[in-house]
Automatic annotation (TrEMBL):
Assigned EC number: 3.5.1.2
Catalytic activity: L-glutamine + H2O = L-glutamate + NH4(+)
Source species of the chain: Postechiella marina
Keyword hit for Lyase: no
Protein's name according to its UniProt entry: Glutaminase
Subunit and interaction comment: Homotetramer.
NCBIfam families: Gln_ase, PRK00971.1-2
Residues given in the record as substrate binding sites: S64, N114, E158, N165, Y189, Y240, V258
Family named by the database record: Belongs to the glutaminase family.
Protein encoded by which gene: glsA
Record keywords, A-Z: Acetylation, Hydrolase
HAMAP family referenced in this protein's UniProt entry, alphabetically: Glutaminase (MF_00313)
Amino acid sequence: MPNFQAILNTIYNDTVKATDKGNVATYIPELAHIDKNNFGMHLKTIDGKVYGIGNYNTKFSIQSISKVLALSKAMSLIGNDIWKRVDVEPSGHPFNQLALLEINDGIPRNPLINAGAIVIADILVSNLENPKADFLNYVRELTGDQSIQFNEKVAHSERETGFRNFAAANLLKSFKNLNNPVDEVLDFYFHQCAIEMTCSQLSKSFFFLANKGKCVLNKTRLTKTQAKRINAIMLTCGFYDEAGEFAFEVGLPGKSGVGGGIVALLPDHFVITTWAPGLNKKGNSKLGMFALEQFTTKTNLSIF
Ligand code: DON
């Protein structure tokens, strides 16, 4: 086994001295003031060992990382019926692009771009009794941590400026691919994105996807096949029009968020989470991608 802590220490030292740290997301005003000098990294192995460096216990906005957990919940509720309403193809376009939705008759290319995640949010709103509370509870149970919360300010901030998401939801509605009212679905979606977690909590919450569907509390959350499918979608779609680059550089299924987090995993081996709030032009964490490339290169652990 590689000396994981020593490797994380080296990566930390090389990463924090980078002069170009990217730029924090400003289109959600509440995220604009986050200090881009934050950097945290946390690793949880399948046998339960944990390693961390930097700000791995600081909470941040998980944003699009939540789309994977929402998809997992939707899969556990309605199974393959999801695929009648959303496809599983990489979009090759930015996360908030709408043109392909118009071309594909209101079927989003995949559940990790915004339009696809809004369809998943609609499924959850239809199938959960108290959608926001039940979803938050699901994330808490996956993580084995009851302290996880929504950041209401972030949810509110995004609602005020989420014009493209309103456009996506309305377009979906026009194609009859949104069953609930636009405001209700987006209120859920903005809250799911506004969940705050630390790197350490995120590594725990994604553990079930590295562990054939069984979470940190050893409960079955998805079947093996469902976990396999979600990992495939993360690999091909988790970084939008940079999914190829992430596979090329890092070689793991993963998911980014505009809060600067990235979760990646090697099935049957580990989950690794990074947080570096500065983003590159594609909206993915610049130093998070660098650190993960270093990790898979130095450990020789990737799916390839
Ligand atoms: O809907 C949005 O635009 C945000 N709540 C989430 C976008 C996001 O995190 C994209 N990922 N890198």
